[in-house]
Amino acid sequence: MAQTNISYKENTKYGYASGRLRVLETRLLNRNAVLRLLEADSAQEVIRLLSEGEYGSAFSGISSPIDFDTGLKIELRRTYALIDELSHDPDLTNIFRAKWDFHNLKVLLKASYLEEFNTGFDGIISDLGLIQLETLKLTVMPESDKKAEAVPNYIMNALNSARSQYESSQNPKFIDTIIDNHCHSFMFERAEEYSNKFLCGYLRAVADLNNIRNFIRVKMLNENIRLLDSIILPYGSIDKKVFIGHFDDTIESFASSLSNTPYSDVITEGIRKWTDEHSLAVYEKLADNFLINYIKPVKYIIFGIEPLIGYLLAKEHEIKLIRIIMTGKINDLPTEIINERLRDTYV
Fold first, then answer.
1. pTM of the entire predicted model
2. Which of 321, 271, 322, 263 has the alpha carbon at shortest distance from 287?
3. Of 110, 129, 277, 299, which is most buried by a Cβ count within 10 Å?
4. Which residues form the domain of 124?
5. In this structure, are 280 and 332 located in the same domain?
């Protein structure tokens, strides 16, 4: 279970936002609502149920279940617009939009090396970032007759670092890992500038849980220690030396070394399932549950930016739940299998 004894910085300028969010939180999907979606006879029925509630406007133009992701993107776009409207600290809340710029950078850089740069990016590129797609494209692949607008240093640093690592290794995995590291560093350092303990704690947990998963994945695939060294996200509470030091140990031995961390339950059950099934699906589910339980206490904060961040994270989590259900329904998976993949809800 996530720790809840966090000190939150109260800020009365968020009084109106908090009140508005309290109302919106009542419209989030609770466990019973998720189970109704799960028990629907078809993907089309899931869309009908969603259209009757908060997702009505997002799904108003969706006629085929196969296009469900378009509706989810519309809803997420609406959520980000709400955060923009309510935030008095855009330099902090915009780190979540910047996350999508880093995502787009990975897509474009890999495409440039795979000679797929001029093909369509529908379904892969996001419009939630802060940087126009054309600007980012020209930054990655300059054209003689066009001049790209300047992009932030944190994007240029990530691009140059990923490009250098790829050209020396010829391994596209390093594009993802290097840019992910830059993204996480940027987000954490901005949260630290604002002395936001809640967000710093959340990002530390994200780093730890990702690092544990990636350690297991590297061991599963018999990858080398160089790859492990490159994919360890910074600013976690578990030192990088712990992962490197256990590289030659068994996964069970590594798990035992983390028994006194807040993640012991996640690790114990996740490793047990990995041993039985050689799958990280249960670990990833438990990691998501840990993170959603970490943010739940902000529902009770009256003032401060924390409820705003919590709502955005909760909405992204909810959209992931819907995507799990819809993907399962479209692929005719048994209800019990889809249910096994579902995460806890925020409300």
1. 0.92
2. 263
3. 129
4. 89-194
5. no
